[in-house]
Amino acid sequence: MRSLRNIFSVGIICVFTVVCLYLYQSLDNRVPRESPAQEQRISALKVDIERLRGVLKNNHEEIAGLKQQIAEFERKRKQDWDKQVEKENEVYDEKAQAEKALKEKVVQIGGDANHKAVEEEQKGVIPEPNRGNKVAVVFEELHKSITKSSLPICQMRGNYTDSHADVQMLDLYNVISFDNPDGGVWKQGWEVTYDKEKVAEEKTLQVIVLPHSHCDPGWIKTFEEYYHTQTRNILDGMARHLGLDKDMRFIYAEISFFEMWWKEQNDDVRKKVIQLLKDGIFELVTGGWVMTDEANAHYFSVITELFEGHEWIRNHIGQDFTPTNHWSIDPFGLSPSIPYLLSAANITNAAIQRVHYSVKKYLAKNKQLEFMWRQLWGSHGKPDIRTHMFPFYSYDVPHTCGPDPKICCQFDFRRLSTYNCPWGIAPKKITHDNVEERAFLIYDQYRKKSQLYKTNVLLVPLGDDFRYEEDSEWNDQYDNYQKLFEEMNKRKEWNIHARFGTLSDYFIELDRSLRAEQQSLPVLSGDFFTYSDRDDHYWSGYFTSRPYHKQLDRTLLHQLRAAEIAYSLRSMKEGKLSDETFGSLVKARRALSLFQHHDGVTGTAKDHVMRDYGEKMLSALQDTEKVLSEALGGLIAAKPVSSTGLLLDEYRVNQDTLPMRRTYKIGEFVVLFNTLSRSRNEPVCIHVDSKRAALENAKGKEVQYQLSPLFALQDAHLLPTGKYELCFANQIKPFGVKVYKVIEKSGDIEDFLATIMGMSNPQINYSFNGFKFETITGSSFTLKNELLEATFSASSGFLQSVTPLGHQKIDVDLYYVHYGVRSHKNLGNGGGDNQSGAYLFLPDGEAKVLEQDIKEIMVVKGPIMKKVYLLGPKELEILQVYSLALNSPSIEIANEVDLRSKSNFELAMCMDTNVQSGDDLFTDLNGLQIIRRRRQLDKLPLQAHFYPMPSAAYIEDTSTRLTLHGNQPLAVSSLKPGQLEVILDRRLKQDDGRGLNQGVMDNRRTLSRFRLLIEPLTPSDNTNTAQERIGYHSMVGLAQNMELHYPIVRMISTVKPGAEMVSGITSNLPCDVHVVNLRTLAGPTDYNGNGLASPKNEAALILHRSLTDCRSKLKLDSECDQKDNAISPKTLFPSIRSVRETSLTLLYQGKEITQLNMQPQDVTSVKLTW
């Protein structure tokens, strides 16, 4: 009995020590699940008592050291606090919160033999994510939902413009030369060496070899084709081999594939996989539906795909596993928005790959490839995410073991039977006779690679695209590496310990090393665009490739979000809808999520794969229409007489055609739904079939309107269609549903008819059926509303200038330009050249102005809406439409382009202005934040100056800001002061050598929509904006972006609704707070029954608060509160029973709350229950 008690006591102390050591580094409120290595040590303790006694002695010494460090950190923290207490939200010492928690653990765990404290901690509320080497002492207060900012929003800007980073990417570009000398075996680096004599004196090199398989949910094959031919085999192999090969490990990322595989498995296999996850043998990394693109994806869509994956994990894996590590090895450039959202979901570590080779080289030289990735606005709100960057060209085996790919390739043991090594030296099976020589060869690469990192812990990925699909690969990789590990590990003079591990294993070892050496990682801020993998090959082409699908993506984004909100509002008010209706919503979520894959929204998949994505999104649009019909129909008590119910007035017939508009008839009803959480005062336009059509509101009162003829491209001319556009003034409350009736207007209608202006064209016999027609005369004409005046060229119709009310005239010379494709170039370094394709943009020089042979101009002038229609060059059939609405501070610009008559042709819309913007350009990142760019044409090529524009770009000087808001992601640049240029479409006949093996020739007529906003600025008193690396929309700019992405939903009802829903919430939210989503939660999928998930009486309310630029002189026309940011969900939604704080994707849930006060730039979720 005494012996058993000794074993138990020693085990308790050792487990306690492991927990303390890990907690000391992390600032996570939950204790990490014990890794397999820890469990093996505990098991070994029970077998070897004598060894335990030695470990116990060492543990006592380590604990004593920890206590001494705690005392030192406590002293230092107090000094720091005394110095910084007057500076709210300032960054403090990293250990401030951890020390108190550690002391409590020492007492708590020491007296808890059954580890109940640990178990309770694991079940605890939202963990405080690991902040790495810097953490705000006030973080806990900032994070709590009861916190309220003490400063007005305008005064807070100064605290949100400096990231306090060791490495700032914009500044780093000033330092890097971007030359490309031949580095030898590591072409983009240098000859890496190490001192063999000092190896034995250093800390043991801990090598984690990480088996993985990167599975694209669509690229060369469709999602389903990949699953049935490859991915199913990979996951089958995982379930068979893991556990049998006791030391083998595996990670996997794409839950879209995993869910498809899971539903085919029996309970035994599912239980086994859950146990593998629980034991740390298998790890799901990131846990998103896909490995999202980071350039074109909107943050709504990123949250949607991440939530979809995490919700599935919560429902089907349960509490046995939650993802804590991010794996992003293939997206073509990287955005800080993604780690920010991941941090909000309590993912604390990240591994990344595709970064400009010159940036990698610089960071490697300075041993900064591992860093704390911080947001541009500093460490406010969400913590920095600890990041590991791969140093070499690719994530495949030849480029991950060390700097020499011809050696690393020899240790990819799948190539024993398939594939070849491009360097001409094949792998060899490891035998007793060659193990020493082969082990040294790969050990030498490990040792050299380790010279690029700060610690003695090394990550070595072992995988590639669609690997481990055959049993032979599982066996060959495992058997041969085990022999190599055994040989290396027994060589004392090599001082190495290598083993298979997961990503969690790696970061646990990194924690241990940093703690033991009392080191911290550098802080980095900024992004990693635009990516180049070699030479001057910049991946800026995919920012625009397949713009038709990019625009379709944003249409689905808007329609899905509207359906989500309507469904949740209906469920709160009327109870659950059917599982079938909810199933349509889930299907649409997954279609949008799937397209966020880094070969989906990027436009970089095979033609038939893009068609498949298009069909899935078209089906999702139809599904969301059904949800909107049922949800809104219930909210307004509409009882349709047909199965069609309410119909959206914009729809698509096919996945490859432009949207069409339905026509309202006399007697039908217009149902409008505002999906924004603030009131809106903006005109709405519908199509009607009668010149006498008018509108009355729910009280029977006629509303102000105007009527104009509709124009369309017919027989290469701009002609009236015979139908009409009815535009009317509309005010609508937040989440409100408003109903109008189309009536027949009696009496004189002349005052309601718009005036038409046009070019004199004797070849066309225009018939305007009673509308007044005027011929355009002079060199220009103007359109104006209450807030601005716009001047257009009478010869070309293009916009020439905009004059905001009370401000100077701003020249805006708008025109089209085009690029060709350069010929193959002699790179001078032995490498082959490529030409522009789906990924790469390699132009043949500067852009050339497109001939302005504008054929026809038509102008509509009325009190509510003014429009200019331009029919452009015949061979491209460009149709450009400018719209200026009542009380709008912006001009909407729509382009329809068709490049099918061209080859190797890229079309751009360009604006030359008199804004003195210097070398600077500001672009958004995922619609979530704005970053400063800087022109450096002296050392970077033209193609390096194009950046992703997911939703907006602006230039500014001290008095004026010019913003172009975009409804779709495209490439943007500013190649000279005062200029903005956006690529609209590209048609390329050749492959660019990046694996797609085809050009981009599946163009179709494509629509792009923008809003041009010009804002007079008040000079800043306290902020040196020239030194900022970040930008912010004004309140008006933010509203314009929201209105463009989330237009008022228009639906047709053939029967009279029973009632309006004046407002879906009881009051406006603050102007700078946006409801990202109101998402009803799903229960587990019934795989053994109807295959559907049932909705819960719960929803995630996801909110985003933007910091806004207060220098704009424009004022927002809304009833929202521009001062207070207090939000009370129970007041907004009276039918809910409880509100609970949660992590972003609800994997972690905390206490009930009554109110939250969000900090600027915060994205947060709360769970509503009704």
UniProtKB/TrEMBL annotation:
Binds 1 zinc ion per subunit. Pfam families: Alpha-mann_mid, Glyco_hydro_38C, Glyco_hydro_38N. InterPro entries: Gal_mutarotase_sf_dom (IPR011013), Glyco_hydro/deAcase_b/a-brl (IPR011330), Glyco_hydro_38_C (IPR011682), Glyco_hydro_38_cen (IPR015341), Glyco_hydro_38_cen_sf (IPR037094), Glyco_hydro_38_N (IPR000602), Glyco_hydro_38_N_sf (IPR027291), Glyco_hydro_57/38_cen_sf (IPR028995). Residues 537-617 form the Glycoside hydrolase family 38 central domain. Keywords: Coiled coil, Disulfide bond, Glycosidase, Hydrolase, Membrane, Metal-binding, Transmembrane, Transmembrane helix, Zinc. One of its GO terms (molecular function) is metal ion binding. The keyword Transmembrane helix applies. GO terms for biological process: mannose metabolic process; N-glycan processing. Catalyzes the first committed step in the biosynthesis of complex N-glycans. It controls conversion of high mannose to complex N-glycans; the final hydrolytic step in the N-glycan maturation pathway. This is Alpha-mannosidase. It comes from Haemonchus contortus.
